[in-house]
Amino acid sequence: MADRQKNLKHDSVGAWAKRLYFASRAVMDSVLRPYDLGSTQWYVLYQLANEGPTMQRDLVRMLQIERATLSGVVATLVRKGLVDQAPDSDDQRQRMLRITRAGRKLWKELPDPIELILTAAFDGADPAELAIARRVLQVATQRLNQHILKGDQA
Amino acid sequence: MADRQKNLKHDSVGAWAKRLYFASRAVMDSVLRPYDLGSTQWYVLYQLANEGPTMQRDLVRMLQIERATLSGVVATLVRKGLVDQAPDSDDQRQRMLRITRAGRKLWKELPDPIELILTAAFDGADPAELAIARRVLQVATQRLNQHILKGDQA
DNA sequence: GAAATATTGATAGGTAGCAAACGAATTGTC
DNA sequence: GACAATTCGTTTGCTACCTATCAATATTTC
Hints:
The structure is a homodimer.
Chain A: H1 13-32, H2 39-51, E1 54-55, H3 56-63, H4 67-79, E2 83-87, E3 95-99, H5 101-109, H6 113-122, H7 127-153
Antiparallel strand pairs in A: 1-3, 2-3
Chain B binds a DNA duplex through α1, α2, α3 and α4.
């Protein structure tokens, strides 16, 4: 009903993807808000808690965000005392990230927002359709990224 | 290839949706950058150029964003002289938005980024699979939004 | 070894989104 | 008519993303 009221004509999978992304962000944010954590901050803690100390440079690749973005997120976590950031002894440019004692303590209290979102969004859904949806999105994303690369060359 | 390098384990449709959203935003931004326009600014201009003067209140519903967000976007467009914002004579709380002469002039020069994205992303794709993907995303979004509503009540 | 180049992280400035709080204007209720 | 509730837009403060640029450090090239 609320979805059907007159919308802009220009409506595409991009727009559906946007809505799903923001809906899942909203759920994640509401779960994490009591702990005063943003979603990207949670991903960083997840990595450091489960995989151990990680180079900031590598996290950029894993999270697929820009260095500048991660720089800000890390600064926030360091300010909160949840993460420790130290220059690497081999390469002074790189920074090794490590979860602090306070960070680990908080991590233990945290619910898993991803599990919650998966259940809320897809519980009972047809796996075959999910697979198709996943593939359509992946292909489209890949094509768009290639399009961007081509544009850069020109 | 670049997609397959070790990622965080927590990977879900939410993450695919995010990647597609950001890929399409990246294309849209790169198209609009020469004109110094953001994607949401483009949507506002689109509405005003094609459908005529619109109440700011209605645009909130059409774009499905918060009043506060639109407020900022409109302020930017007004500052650039592309849009005119005037109180409605009937209801002094509401603001009528109208494209200016300069706005219309710019609009005529603008390429259609949505068309470009649709082609780049989905040209040649199977319509049946697209329909399934669309439905999966819509259902998931709806379920997440309901989940948020329930959480609010509790 | 010195100069050019590449990499890493930080910073500045921009867009886009949200929530919360506020003022002004309108509508509803008594 | 007066008071309460609602609606609309703005402002503030936050997260998260981008580009462009800079400083520091490594690496490559000559």
